[in-house]
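Contributing new records

If you add data, match the layout below exactly. Sequence lines come first and carry their own label; structure lines follow with theirs. Keep one chain per record. Anything else will be rejected by the validation script.
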Amino acid sequence: MTTIEIQERDIVGENLITELVAANRILVRQGVLDAFGHVSARSAPGASTFLLSRNLAPGSVTRNDVMTHDLDGVVLDDDRPAYLERFIHAEIYRRRPDVMSVVHSHSAAVVPFSVVEAPFRPVIHMAGFLNPEGTPVFEISDFAGDGSDLLVTNGQLGSDLAGALGDGNVALMRGHGSIAVGSSLPEVVYRAVYTEVNARAQLEASVLGTPRFLSRGEAATANGSVGGQALRAWNVWRAQVAKEVGSDD
């Protein structure tokens, strides 16, 4: 069992809600989420339900705000307003039984890569989880026409987005943002943060000249060695928000 799998085992159950609150606070602190965006966690390995906050700014999420959803995006036993784009999470969990956590963000450095022809590729060793050939871009107009608000607000669009993600770890959403998936909360938070870091690095390198991207072999090796240490980052970030999360009880 890997360290990531051990961590996921340890936070399934009563601790999962607390750690989901922490993930929200970490992603805000790291500049991935702001007043918008969201992070979810599958209720348990193999479960057909997932945990996601009610419709609320991520930095304000507490334990009491977390609701249980099914894979149709229906909130169970709670009538509070849900996120409009909960279908992103629902359909990814439906399609990908390996996924235990999902982040949807509008992080500033990533969005520009969703609207240009230049592919978003890994340039730093911390981002070996990205597709070395280019991160897929979900073009919502192919499915919703040219009059949509670019939001994924029903199950069909969620399914279409999950299809664009495929078996990958990150997908861009044209003019909107991105999604990242992982086998645990620590892993998906790590990926969401370093997706943003890689975007800044790729943009800055492009100003200086032509970037040299990670090869397929380099990306795979880096993802195995560096990505396997996501807990190192999670533990630092988790400690930074400990007082905020603790005050929720």
